[in-house]
Backbone:
């Protein structure tokens, strides 16, 4: 007789009603959150709803009615300042000081100036690639200012403002853009792929949306650390992405695991209207990206990305929610029009009219809106603007000049940090490269690399 066919007798313990399901007997020592609790009874004569495991708290209805998103009101967009820089709710306030507001403004202006200079530098052939943040400065600078410096951040590629707000210097920007000896990545990444262990910002990856599951995993690890170290200030994970990245499978996987594991993670979407040349009308039919957060059971809000105060307020509250009841994920959809081209490899006027871009640039953007607020409080004027922009431009150009003149990283870094000890295959590659560089000095100018050929010899000697 097969073991599967042996009848099992149910003892008295097996008939006891579990307090939670499923696997209630295994959950003796932990309290299940309310959203996971359910009854083990299918129904009662007077029940108005059944707690189906897959859809808790769904009420019965005898009306045949399909949900039609097109007939529902769109998710509202939170803002504090209108486009004229006026506070809409005087009672709420701005939760900032005049000094802090001035610092935020200068960071956005500095980022804008750096973008203009580096974009032109790429057009001159002085670096290979660049991406601007024009029109989206308020999202990166504003959100970063509302986070704890110890929170770990996973950026996409348009978050230079996050780095700047956290203390990434102009020299460090230039080191990465020019891949010089001071580049933290030793010249292994293409431009705008910044990273800083000191500032708790993970290195940017070219692959679209891969930072999202990384952030979800990091948030779950931080949740465990927060539980195991109650005396240490709790941390969260934060990740940024565009609405185009939300079309990737990694987006859905990340939100789902963060929601089911209740990981303290803030997902910040920059919905700027275009995924390279693809407008949002061709990307999705639902109500933006915020509607997806609700679908995954996450606290969600849509925010006016041109309003840096709204960005800061929403991010602060999202961080508080992320640490509530042991942790939970939060999705913020930041709305801002992408004024610049997608990158230096893109000509956006091939798929949108220039008048559309100029209209957005003139009508409303985060820098102009904050400036109007500062001027209304007599904290800023035209003289301040002219002097500040002149000085910031000098600072950026000085860092540009220093970064461009420095040598490239040692050639050996092309082989470093792969294996603890050099392999036989690596050794053959190093020796072959050294031989080629030695035999063809006119074709390969290695004088621009720190250490020249000696760095390869050092690597071979060190790893023996």
Residues:
């Amino acid at each position: 007789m097969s073991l599967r066919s042996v009848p099992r007798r149910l003892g008295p313990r097996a008939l006891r009603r579990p307090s939670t399901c499923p696997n209630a007997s295994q959950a003796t020592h932990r309290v299940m959150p309310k959203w996971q609790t359910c009854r083990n009874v299918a129904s009662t004569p007077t029940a108005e709803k059944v707690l189906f495991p897959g859809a808790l708290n769904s009420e019965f209805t005898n009306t045949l009615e399909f949900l039609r998103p097109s007939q529902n009101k769109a998710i509202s967009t939170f803002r504090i300042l209108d486009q004229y820089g006026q506070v809409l709710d005087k009672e709420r306030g701005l939760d900032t000081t005049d000094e802090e507001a001035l610092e935020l403004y200068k960071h956005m202006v500095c980022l804008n100036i750096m973008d203009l200079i580096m974009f032109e530098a790429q057009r001159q052939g002085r670096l290979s690639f660049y991406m601007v943040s024009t029109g989206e400065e308020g999202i990166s600078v504003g959100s970063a200012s509302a986070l704890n410096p110890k929170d770990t951040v996973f950026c996409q590629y348009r978050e230079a403002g996050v780095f700047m707000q956290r203390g990434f210097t102009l020299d460090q920007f230039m080191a990465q853009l020019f891949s010089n000896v001071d580049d933290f990545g030793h010249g292994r990444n293409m431009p705008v792929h910044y990273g800083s262990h000191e500032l708790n910002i993970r290195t940017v990856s070219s692959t679209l949306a891969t930072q999202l599951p990384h952030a979800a995993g990091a948030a779950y690890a931080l949740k465990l650390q927060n539980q195991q170290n109650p005396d240490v200030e709790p941390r969260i994970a934060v990740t940024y992405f565009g609405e185009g990245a939300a079309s990737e499978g990694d987006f859905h996987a990340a939100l789902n695991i963060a929601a089911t594991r209740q990981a303290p993670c803030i997902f910040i979407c920059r919905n700027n209207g275009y995924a390279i040349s693809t407008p949002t009308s061709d990307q999705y039919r639902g109500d933006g990206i915020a509607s997806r957060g609700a679908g995954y059971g996450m606290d969600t809000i849509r925010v006016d990305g041109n309003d840096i105060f709204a960005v800061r307020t929403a991010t602060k509250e999202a961080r508080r929610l992320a640490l509530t009841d042991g942790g939970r994920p939060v999705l913020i959809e930041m709305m801002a029009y992408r004024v610049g081209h997608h990158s230096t490899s893109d000509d956006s006027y091939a798929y949108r009219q220039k008048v559309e871009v100029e209209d957005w640039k003139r009508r409303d953007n985060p820098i102009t809106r904050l400036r109007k607020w500062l001027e209304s409080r007599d904290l800023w004027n035209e003289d301040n603007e002219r002097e500040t922009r002149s000085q910031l431009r000098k600072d950026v150009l000085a860092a540009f000049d220093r970064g461009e003149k420095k040598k490239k990283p040692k050639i050996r870094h092309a082989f470093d940090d792969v294996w603890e000890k050099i392999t036989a295959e690596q050794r053959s590659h190093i020796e072959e490269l050294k031989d080629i560089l030695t035999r063809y000095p006119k074709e390969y100018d290695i004088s621009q690399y720190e250490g020249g050929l000696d760095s390869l010899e050092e690597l071979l000697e060190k790893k023996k």
